């Protein structure tokens, strides 16, 4: 008699399948247990899902290279963004701005983040409803990154619409849709025009001014400057937005943990780390192998794309006790939600600051809230996980 276990289909991991986006965690668990070195034959890429394997691969840039891009699809244009380079190019690019994003450097932004958060929440308090993504979290990080880059406030919505298009993927499709390509070109155009205005005499003091100075001194190529601005606008926008939505959602799903947090707001930083571990916005990043790699009885050939599934690693029971349970006291700061190794997130301190201030303000202004699950809407991307709409209900103020 065939048992359920025997008749079970082999596990499949298809990050372009919308069905996976609703709840990828059972698939991740099966990958870790049954196929820790998984080969997706349809799209011809490999995937690592255990903590130790992902952490090792993220550190071993000589074997797991970023130079062919960090998406599963091939790079269309060979622009050397920070995130798409290996040393020594990466070392030079990262060194140039890494000191601008340390916890000490971003701390002075706290007042601006708080003021922006209050401004965004205020119009909704009397209604008892807010879409915490559309009305709040989608706006806050873009406003802060625009401030850092010196872009005017009236351009924020337009820039956000373009950056959203860049990360969106059609169901079952491997490539960036045309809309995303067009949005990329519009972003480049916008950045180039902004720099041209500055070259004509509009002087400002911000990150772009610093990068243009490096270009003028011959330390950076023009493409490097555009690449920097591009990656900062994309990385700083989408992921932090999704993190704030995921925090609200997980607190709603775990009322005991929400009550614990409300009774002791000092737990907030640890609660943020737990959401990063348990349901972080960056699911996976890709690498390309520079040599054959043998692991767990499989051989990944040289030149293969490999997905490092960071959020699967973060739920690896080989690493974390009760890994599948959400515990805001856990404070596992060694999770891979911000990646690891040389490419570990440059903006992590800023993301943590924004999430902390945002949640302090949301909890103070709304009091107890619930998610109206009928209005939830998930975004679809092979790498970014989170919602496009998270409607909250609370007592009108
Ligand atoms: C919750 C929010 C965020 C998440 C989950 C996140 C996640 C990540 C991850 C996983 C990586 C590693 C990429 C890899 O291994 O290939 C990364 C890199 C990066 N992140 Fe973030 N990030 C967030 C916020 C931000 C913010 C606010 C900024 C900018 C201000 C930023 C800028 C970058 C940059 C520039 C890199 C590339 C670093 C390098 O290649 O050396 N991120 N991020």
Provide tags for this entry.
397 residues; binds protoporphyrin IX containing FE; alpha+beta; Cytochrome p450; 3-stranded antiparallel β-sheet; globular
N-to-C span? 63 Å
As for the number of domains, it is: 1
Largest sheet: 5 strands, mixed
**Which whole number gives the mean pLDDT?**
92
Shape: globular
The CATH architecture name reads Orthogonal Bundle
Radius of gyration: 21 Å
What oligomeric state is this?
A: single chain
List segments where confidence is low: pLDDT < 50 over at least 5 consecutive residues: none
> Strand pairing plus helix content: what structural class?
alpha+beta
Beta-sheet strand percentage? 5-15%
What's the number of extended β-strand segments? 12
CATH topology: Cytochrome p450
Describe this structure in words.
The chain is α+β, with helices and mostly antiparallel strands and 397 residues long. The radius of gyration is 21 Å and the shape is globular. The protein has one domain (4-394): Cytochrome P450 (Cytochrome p450, Orthogonal Bundle), CATH 1.10.630. 48% of the residues lie in helices and 11% in strands. It has a 5-stranded mixed β-sheet with strand order 1-2-8-5-3, sandwiched between helices. Strands 4-12-9 form a 3-stranded antiparallel β-sheet. The protein has a two-stranded antiparallel sheet with strand order 6-7. The protein contains 17 helices and 12 strands. Strand 6 (293-295) and strand 7 (298-300) form a beta hairpin. It has helices at 4-7, 18-22, 25-34, 51-59, 89-98, 103-106, 110-121, 132-137, 140-149, 156-167, 178-199, 207-216, 222-253, 255-263, 268-279, 310-313, 348-366, and strands spanning 37-40, 45-48, 64-65, 129-131, 284-289, 293-295, 298-300, 305-309, 369-371, 377-378, 387-389, 391-394. Protoporphyrin IX containing FE binds at residues 58, 66, 70, 82-83, 94, 145, 231-232, 235-236, 239-240, 243, 280-282, 285, 310, 337-339, 343, 345-347, 350-351.
């Amino acid at each position: 008699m065939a048992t359920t276990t025997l008749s079970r289909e082999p596990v499949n991991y298809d990050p372009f399948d919308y069905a996976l986006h609703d709840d990828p965690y059972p698939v991740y668990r099966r990958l870790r247990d049954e196929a820790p070195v998984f080969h997706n034959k349809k799209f011809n890429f490999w995937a690592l899902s255990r903590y130790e394997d992902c952490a090792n691969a993220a550190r071993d840039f000589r074997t797991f290279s970023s130079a062919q891009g960090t998406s599963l699809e091939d790079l269309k244009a060979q622009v050397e963004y920070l995130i798409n380079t290996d040393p020594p190019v990466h070392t030079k690019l990262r060194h140039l701005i890494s000191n601008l994003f340390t916890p000490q450097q971003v701390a002075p932004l706290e007042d601006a983040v708080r003021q922006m958060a209050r401004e965004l929440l205020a119009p909704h308090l009397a209604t008892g409803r807010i879409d915490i993504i559309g009305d709040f979290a989608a706006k806050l990080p873009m406003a802060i990154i625009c401030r850092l880059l010196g872009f005017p406030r009236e351009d924020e919505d337009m820039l956000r619409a373009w950056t959203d298009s860049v990360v969106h993927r059609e169901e079952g499709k491997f490539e960036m849709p045309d809309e995303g390509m067009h949005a990329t070109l519009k972003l480049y155009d916008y950045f180039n025009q902004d720099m041209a205005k500055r070259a004509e005499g509009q002087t400002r003091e911000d990150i772009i001014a610093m990068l243009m100075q490096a270009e003028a001194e011959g330390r950076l190529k023009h493409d490097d400057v555009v690449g920097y601005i591009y990656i900062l606008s994309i990385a700083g926008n989408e992921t932090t937005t999704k993190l704030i939505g995921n925090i609200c959602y997980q607190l709603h799903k775990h009322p005991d943990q929400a009550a614990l947090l409300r009774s002791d707001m000092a737990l907030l930083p640890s609660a943020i780390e737990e959401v990063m571990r348990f349901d972080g916005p960056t699911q996976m990043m890709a690498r390309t192998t520079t040599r054959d790699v043998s692991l767990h009885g499989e051989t990944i050939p040289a030149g293969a794309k490999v997905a490092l599934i960071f959020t699967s690693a973060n739920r690896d029971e080989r690493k974390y006790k009760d890994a599948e349970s959400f515990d805001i006291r856990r404070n596992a700061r060694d999770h891979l939600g911000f990646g690891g190794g040389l490419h570990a997130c440059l903006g992590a301190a800023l993301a943590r600051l924004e999430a902390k201030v945002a949640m302090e303000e949301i909890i103070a202004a709304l009091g107890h809230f619930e998610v109206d699950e009928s209005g939830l809407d998930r975004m679809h991307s092979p790498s970014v996980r989170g919602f496009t709409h998270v409607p909250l209900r609370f007592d009108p103020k």
